[in-house]
Amino acid sequence: MNRTMTPALMQQTEKQAFDQGVPALLLMENAARGIADALDSMLNGQKGRVLFAAGSGNNGGDAIAAARIYREMGGEAVLWLPLSCKTDSAKQNLAFARYLGIEVCESLPEGPFDAAVDGLLGTGLQGAARGDAEKAIEQLNALSLPVLAIDIASGIDGTSGAHGAAVKATVTAALHRVKPGTFLVQPRSLSGKVLCLPIGLPREDNGEGYFIYEKSDLPQLLPPRAMDAHKGTCGRVSLLCGSMGMAGAAAMAAESCLRAGAGLVTVLCDREVMPILQTLVPNAMCAEPEKVGAFDALLMGCGLPVNEEQHQRMRSVYDPEKPAVLDAGALRMLSQAPFTLGKKTVLTPHAGEAAALLGVDIASVLSDPVGSARKILRRYGCGVVVLKNAVTVICDETRTALNVTGSPALAKGGSGDLLAGLMAGLLPTMPDAFEAACTACLWMGCAGELAEERFGVRSPLTRDILTLLTEVAK
């Protein structure tokens, strides 16, 4: 598990190092070596002619130093300085580059180039790029080259992800820790593949930043199962889900709930839906909503119509003292007729459902997903909000996580039902609802990545993802 670091905290961390006598040039050299190695990997070890675009600050200094090191590795480096150097470290590295005979240009040099390194602006930008910086970003993008961005793609706000003109990165090589804007930017593709390079600063957790869970964390996050476990000790989960025409949503949710480890799963639904569900998910039981029995966790909403009858059923089944997940139709009904939620309840909206919950447009949600998730948390009084997107935001009252795993292979109907079922299935044996939500998002994201690897991004069905859940959790 890692954490993000805001640009402001990064500046503070660097200042503390400098105040204790750590030379700025040493950190720049460490960063430059990591950047040159990352560039070499991006080019699969083929030494090419690379354009190093350097701005006026230390981000530009990193690019200048990386150009020198890349040349030492056998590549050809050309420096482009559309913005004049201002920091001492950058100026010293520029003098060294000139001494070694590296080509330095103030106007865009002629190609061809095999790749480019973006060291134009870094994480200090607030607001949109303007003037010469904006022009340089547009010129770099016009080259249509593979681009390695240093720390963050130039033009993106390192805290929020807001941007005007922004470099389209193939790879972002974050320094020390990834900045939140790298993941929060819309579209997410602007950041490309994200790496994190150590530069010599202490790695201890300072208790700040968003959690970033990784595939290697999954085995430790999943709750252990006792040797003498039986179905009664692994959790009883009830699902108020499904209807005629949307029975598949309930089936997917029920099966993923079972895959998550729930011992007994009961789908509360109308009688005419029961034969379908008994065929699709024979491990699950069915009962009429009015005959709900005892449960340890509840899931409501997958394939549930939005009407007054279902709203009354929701209110009668829901227990604010029990862990619960509200998804899909349940969220729509909650937005129309709010009721008191418990602190063990998880809401799982996508951007459209979040907009309905907040009474705003979707663009407002996407422009500030962390803020939007926190507004939902406060407005509805629940315990956890999972705002689903290419990068999913998970938050409770004190913690925020970004799930950065996943794949476009998950862009099909049924994925949300699967995720909701995973969360509900984990809740009985994971008392921390925030951790259960993070675990479910990570688990499904890893399965989505494996599905893309096996079947590509177009063909996988939700049932393929269900099957792969078992494999990624080994």
**How many helical stretches?**
17
Strand order of the largest sheet: 12-11-10-13-14-15-16-17-18
| Strand content range | 15-25%
Looking at how many chains there are and whether they match, the oligomeric state comes to single chain
Could you give a short account of the major beta sheet? 9 strands, mixed
Q: Mean pLDDT score, rounded?
A: 94
Estimated helix fraction: 40-55%
Our Rg estimate from Cα atoms comes to 25 Å
Distance between the termini: 18 Å
What does this protein look like?
The protein has 474 residues and is of the alpha/beta class. Helices cover 40% and strands 15% of the residues. It is built from 17 helices and 18 strands. Helix 5 links the parallel strand 5 and strand 6. The model has no long low-confidence stretch (mean pLDDT 94).
Give the gist of this structure:
The protein has helices at about 5-20, 25-40, 60-70, 90-100, 130-140, 180-185, 220, 245-260, 275-280, 310-315, 330-335, 350-360, 360-365, 370-380, 415-425, 435-455, 460-470; strands spanning about 1-5, 50-55, 75-80, 105, 115-120, 145-150, 170-175, 195, 210, 235-240, 265-270, 285, 295-300, 325, 345, 385, 390-395, 400-405.
Question: Can you give keywords for this protein?
Answer:
17 helices, 474 residues, alpha/beta, 40% helix
Task: Describe the protein's topology.
Blueprint lengths: L1 E2 L3 H13 L4 H19 L6 E6 L3 H15 L3 E5 L7 H12 L3 E3 L9 E5 L11 H12 L4 E4 L20 E5 L4 H5 L8 E5 L13 E2 L5 H4 L14 E5 L6 H13 L4 E5 L5 H7 L4 E3 L9 E4 L7 H10 L6 E3 L2 H8 L8 E3 L3 H8 L3 H6 L1 H12 L3 E4 L4 E4 L4 E4 L11 H12 L6 H23 L6 H11 L2
